[in-house]
Amino acid sequence: MKYFAVLLFLIGATAPLRAQTKSSPDVAADKKAVEAAVQTLFDSMRASDTTRARSVMAPNLRIIILSKNPEGVTATRETSGKQFLGMLASRPAQTLDERSWNGQVQLDGDLASYWCEYAFFNAEKFSHCGVDVFQLYRSPQGWKIVNLAYTMRRENCNLKAIPPK
């Protein structure tokens, strides 16, 4: 009876460890999938492809833009995924080009964030730079962008760091 009690204790004590090991996702694969979702959004912008953009967007995507107003005070604007898709559909392909570097992924289960520096070009002309911060969640169809916040500035842009097209 004593051995049976010890055996039950060991099974009960190690069950959470086995469950955690079985359900733990492959972190490296998740990081690559998060990066791929963000890159898909950038590629869809370049191609003005709303179908491709929608494939990595949550239906309730929210976009927050932070920039300085003429008085130098940080102002915020908010737009929806639907508005973003409308803007994208109105642009000819190869007009919008967002290039990113120094991307960093953070994961916690089905939640991810992706932070990167970026430079934005409109019709091949430099427009602005800043930082993008994406929040994504794991859906049955893959990683979806649910929130995007980014800064916009024209000063203090490290133009030498911008990756080639």
UniProtKB/TrEMBL annotation:
Q: Which UniProt keywords apply?
A: Signal
- Read off the Gene3D superfamilies from this record: 3.10.450.50
| Signal sequence region | 1-19
Q: What is this protein called?
A: Nuclear transport factor 2 family protein
Organism listed in the record = Adhaeribacter arboris
